[in-house]
## 1
Amino acid sequence: MARRPDAPRRPARLRHWRDWQSLAYLAALPALATWQWVNGFAVLLYAPMLFLTLGVGVIHHNHVHLRTWRGRRMNRLTDFWITLLQGHPTFVFWPAHVANHHRHRHGPRDVARTYRFGGDTNHLRGYLLHPFQAVWVLIPVFFGWLGRLRRHRPGPWRYCMAQYALWLGSWSALLLLDWRKALLFVIVPQLHGLHWLLATNYLQHAHADGRRPAPNAEAGAGADAEARCDTAGTRLNYARNFEGLVNPLLFNIGLHTAHHENPHVHWSELTQLHRTRYRAQVDPALNEQGLVPYMVRVFVLGALWPRFRSRSLMSSVPFVPPESSTH
């Protein structure tokens, strides 16, 4: 019997046409770094390169929630490409973000909740320090998750180790080639992007209502079940939203409530979801007109004049201590 010819392989397809913007960012960042490596430092190129490190962090986030491609091979290649560009493995979003932050929504069991570090604050010092504080508590989460993965799913564990090897191998090779250029054009921008990625949690959640309510004895079992959740039932005040230019530039990263409530929709759909479903349900104090004006008002002007500071939304909610700060 004659062997049937293999079916022709379908070309890789993007899941959504708007991800051409993602591909443009993923190509532009190494292009700017390479040009400066060869031709020398240029302020007019270095500044957009730093901006693109922010964009790559958001692309990484979106790629985890909804894979960019319709084929496994291209999605895995994208995992490794983002690993190279970001300077850390892409798998870390699964234990730190999906299994922790999206599960607990800034609640008392969210390992990197902003009010875990020095109280419920929202100021420049807290913003700058939060990435270092978050990394300190997330590292044990990474290693615990990897340990369980190695015992129960060795194939995915090897995939994660390959990402570590690619990241550390790329740093080693570039440092050996020219350590000054490696620091200036690769490692420092990557660390800048990583700081932003972690600090975004502070921007989106500081002074938001992440605590669960105390159970009401008169309400019975329903209230007790609600108290075991990290947010108060249908309340949506656990996140801050930023409207304005940040969203077309950074893939709707500002529309955080809509994203939390719909983590698997494509990022381009968040604009309509925010406008039609969630904006009116969130406390008006959590809907900001723009990211930069918010940071100037709260972090700069607020340091001098109290009237520009944000107000915590957690003070009126009876606090139920968390069962555990890790999971």
## 2
Amino acid sequence: MGATQLEEALPYRWAASSAGREACANDQRWLGGIVANAAPFSDWWAKARIVQLAYEPMYDADPAVYQGKADPRAIADALHNELKTHAQAFDWAQCQERYPGFCRLVDEEYVIKTLNHWKRREFTKAIGRNFEVYRYLGQEGKQGECGEWCTQNTFLVVSTASVSLAVERSLPNPKLFRPLFNVDELAEIIHQRNIRALTLRTHGYANPAGGFYKFLSDEANYLFAKPKPGGEPTDTLGEEHLYIGYHWPSEQPVFNRGLIRDSMSNLEILMKFLGSLLLLSFIPSVVLIGLTELAEKIDLVRDVGPQWHLAIAAGVFFLWLSLLMLLRSVVYQRDRYRAIHYGAPDLAEFFWRLDKSLKRLMLQDMGLPERDERVQLALKRSRKLVNLIGHSMGGLVLVNVLRVLSDRFGKDDQESNDDGLGDCLKLGKLILASPDIPLELLREGRNNYVRSAIRRCEQIYLMSSDRDIVLRYLSTLGNWFSEPSVEMSGLRLGNVFLPPNPEKEIQKTPRRKRRREQLKILLIRGAILTRQAVRPTSAYDLFENFSYLDCSKMKGVNAVALELNPFTAIPIDAINTFFYLTGRIDVHGGYFFTYTPTFKLLPFLMQVTAPSEEDVRHELDRFDERDTIRFLYRAIPTPGSVDIDTSVVESDEQSDIAIGSSEAP
């Protein structure tokens, strides 16, 4: 046994009293919930099982779970035997190969520390992790098709929050994903293999766990596929690049058992809601009844009796009830709440803990004290690049993550271009596909954390479509009651698009003012009419940092070849709605279909540092043979890029007009 000693002798017992029985029930419910909802043989699962094995089976406890082990060695052995059974392993060597972190760390001393945390009432802190990490195992029967590095370089990070207090988590399929013991194990993989870059991709609204896991496996199989003859090295990812999917709690709209279970498990609250709605509906009902009485007096209607009054009151109540239940069943606001309050903080914690683990490993290798100046220089030189890809509401998650991880916010951050996400991680590209972010956040006075996030990125790419009916209509409906202004609810960044032949439009502007003037061609669509996306009150420096990929006519997100104008707007939406509902296209998420040009472009963007406009256009020409994507490169060239024209930049800087003035372009 190591130096650590048990503070209370085993086995543990609950008190033989009514208070002890109550404590037993509470402890069993808590520990059982952890074991049921945690990844098997992960850190917090193991700690919960250790406590269960330490207690005697009292008060009808299951003796197969609560075994009253007499010493820490017996508990560790019991867990090792459970692992052998779970993994169907012939010997301990197979277990070590499949679950290296668990096999290395779960020993007698680990058991003692866990039990001491329990007795000190520090158990919540000991298991306090809001995410889990899994390794992708490959699709059954297709492991040989997905490339050499697919199963070694693809990981899944999952927020441990459930979609509802009444609904248990949906764990990944163990045939596709195997849990790591904790984030330290992922850090060791990155450190030992000298991984240079990580790309994290997260989903958007209405993406249940099972569907996202399948998408991630399909994407990984493509990204790490064996290179095709005649292809470019950047067409697939290599051994020094990790692809990580991140799932935050999201649920299926309308046909969702969780919605019903959530309501049925809280009947008292449901009755309070119905009672409040009944009282509120009384006011318009009285007004309508009064109007019908007035109409009867002036002979507009006849025979208005009590049955009419009852019908009016019932009609108002059920109309309001139907509308509110519809808004709840589309789960938009529920997903938005979870994205901001669960998804963003949990992902920020993942990056913080990963950076902390990487720093610890590097300090061990260097053998120097943390405050040594050489340590900071070495850490900065060896930072791992982190690319972020967010779809729809996932873009909101990523922007909020960067807000949490940023050191400073708002306009005070203008002089700082620090790309650090910690001591060992640095921010690379931010790729937003149809982001569900209000356009107003890119205006002066509305963009404190957006500015801080954007200025830290190497480059930002916006994939958008004027035909995204989900973002344009459903987001407007879902945000109508929550956003502080009507414009914020109706105009989203993911609906920004470019006119036909944007290059010709730019050439019409004087070269001296082209840097700012080119932003005038950015458009955004309401329903039928379009307007300029950039106004005099806009934060030009934010818009200038984006490279725009207008995918309105791309295969996978569109089924109509018509150009957009006030006469074709409604027919385009109607036709695309039909194809969307029949599953032929995905107007909102088709950017990630593996056959689309946008997805084929991703490996290039992930791997090439600060690609120039010429580089990106070359790749688009390769993958977008039908020329369906309109492209506008960032107005501010990336530092170090070959696109920098010093004379033009200097001229622009001298002639820039103060943003927000009456003379702003």
## 3
Amino acid sequence: MIWATSGFGVLAQQSKKIPVQDTGKFDRDYALEATMLGFFAKDGTRNPTLKAKKGELVRIRITNGEIMTHDIALEKLGIKSKTILEKGASTSITFKAEQSDTYFCSVPGHRAAGMVGSFEVVEGVISDVTIAGQLPLKDGKPLNLNFETGTLKDWTATGEAFANPLFSQDPSPVHEKEMNIGFEGKYFLSSGGTLHYKLTGTLTSVPFRVTQPFAAFRVSGGALQDTRVELVLAGTDQIIYHITGQGRATLQPAVVDLQPYLNKDIFIRIIDNETGISQIPYIANDKWAHINFDDFLFYPTRPDFPNELKQKDIIILPPLDPVLHAGLSGLEAAKVMTPPKGFKVTLAAAEPDIIRPISFTLDAKGRLWVVEGHTYPVPAPEGQGRDRILIFEDTDGDGTLDKRKVFAEGLNLVSGIEVGMGGVWLGAAPYLLFIPVDAKTDQPAGPPQKLLDGWGVHDTHEVLNNLRWGPDGWLYGTHGVFTHSNVGKPGASDAERTKINAGVWRYHPTTHQFEVFAEGSSNPWGIDFNDYGHPFITVCVIPHMYHIIQGARYQRQAGKHFNPYTYDDIKTIADHVHWVGERGPHAGNFRSASAGGGHAHAGAMIYLGGDTWPKEYRNEIFMNNINGARLNVDHFERSGSGYEATHKTDFLAMNDSWSQWLNMKYDPSGSVYAIDWYDKNQCHSSNPDVHNKTMGRIFKITHENDKWVKVDLSKASDMELVNYQLNANEWYVRQARTILQERGPNKKVHKALKQILNSNPDPTRKLRALWTLHVTKGLTEKDLTDLLSHENEYMKSWAIQLLTENKTVSPATLKRFTELAQNDTSALVRLYLASAMLRLDPGQRWEVVDALAQKSEDKDDHNLPLMVWYAAEPLAALDMKRALQMAERAKLPKILPYTIQRVGAIGTDESKKVLKELNDKLGKMDHSHENHENLMLIGKVLEE
């Protein structure tokens, strides 16, 4: 590895790395600006092809063009600079040119975003000289298409942008001082630069005859639809060519093939219809809302410019989304929303009664328990927190939360809340807290108890959040990628703790066990379960939707998985993203209304609120799109072992740029409550002064069929709670199950639940009975093993999960698992078996993993190839030879190459021996591409 600060480079020759002294003298010295859009040369070229002769000493230096982590690396040479973060910071790599290579940014996701270019070792002279061009003629005289007359002769202007558009200075008086224009001759044209970018207008040339097969002109400015240059066929208004700038100031040549239009008349039209004025209060105006132009010339052959601007390098942004409102009162905000026909949105509560609502839940009486996050974004010193918990109630059904109590105050950085099992559960980094509740007074029955500590606060909008009871009786929550937690009971040693920095976790309310349920993603701020008990999370920045499988590892926004042998992770189930354009998710902010609004999502609600809402919404997942100020809806379709998510029409537009709904939940009537952290700043900032401290709302979405009900399930009898498992509204199901879990085992309850389990024809009702039996300790191992023969795949799969709940199974159960792995026709069942293996001692996994790996029908499944690998990976350390033999039989992709890598990572003489034996065996087999790849991999592993 090479670090620019060391003064040395590294050259990889064969397997050796030879240092190259950085003397400050270079044969080729390249300087590039690094941004998420690519590496840019001073002449404006995006990802330029860098050239050198063999043996020359080369330095590539990058300067950060934004506040973002970047580096530069060479692929074949295997060298990398240090990582830079601050705008204006620089770093470099130095090396001897021996072979052509690829340079790129090695920060995860940046290469895929477009930060990649070519380095070429060439022979002969390296020159940038191109052929000469000539101005088009009219009536035998050259036209003023390069503006060297200092006037707009031969042009007609409309609007204000081209009233005084000619400039003769570089830096330009209408551009920022550090911008290099690089124009030809004495003058260039700009429709406003970064100083007068709000101006709009059009500039049109006189028509002229195409007398040569090629033309080129220089252009720069905004990569926007409405700042462009057009070549138009005279007399028809047919646009034969158009191009924009690429969001930079330096003029670059654009080359046009005019061969089809020889001897025809064309004209040039330069358009600036973009003001760049932001309609979002805290988003700056777009100063790139202008176009720069110079030097239109004809050429006899295609000219070759090293900094040619090519359309494929330009990533055009659509116009900013229209935002109708901002900074409204609560009543006004509700009025301007546009829900579907048959629905209405009403204000349930607003400031000053609720301020900064960051999380909420509903209790068994249908009341809202809401956290006011006054401490966010900076945690207070111990004992000085300012967060509080409020209890809201609608006492008369008019939609207004007219009764309000303060339950607790003085809390610190609370980010998640759930109620049940005798109290209130709070995510309040660095703690998971429990506050017992006196049900008669709605007051704490004791001080907060610190159940777990070690939760990080590195990034305070990525702490533990969105607490929710799972169907299995555990408390689930999510956690972001840039906060690093090492969780355990207070006083636990490091060895007794569990690391998490992205994913889904769970905590058992009575056994007090903590587990990471699945790892990966970005900053999930929403989790919910569908009718079959399958969890889903919504995330930000990376694609937004994931079906969460116990033990799975998912695509990460940043960082590496804790297990270094993961090799690959499971990607989104969504067939879409909610942002537009190819510049990445952030560039689509406030320009993505057509796609769903943007990359930032908060909340997850799978609507199971009864039968008053139209059927089309049941089992669909709702999430708030923060940048787009709208509720997105995704539809799930079963696909193989899991799901595919497709985008449905957005459910609701808030039409208010300050709107920031953080979560939504349905109530006993089937209506939906939503909390709104109402704030003009939509982005997390560690500066508390950036965020509004006085506002907050709770809204209620109601369908015309909804009927308000007053309930108190805490007073229901055991048998009434059992019967609630059949209710169409999942609110009753979940509340009743949690109450029965708290009340504990009851033979009458178990008998009634088993009647539902055995007799109800609906698999979802059977599952509800099964889950409630589980949380009330009403199931034996035999009950669950009997379900392994059930005809329904959901019943079998959940039996597998519950049998491995305690991370151990009997030999008889393990044998049944093997039979299922060999014979069951359901990919879902095989998925649960792979997941279950991750919970068992590796020594118990062999037969099941072997059978799963041989299922060729799962080779293209979204989940199974990687889930089987995660289960198989530790087996290499137990018995390398057996693991390789199993991998040879595998029909799933990657099992063999991953096993080769895993065995190689052991790094012993024995591991090298078994790999050599495999190498000899494969060398005598067929010459298939796959076989060749494995032989190459073994060679590489053995070299290392």
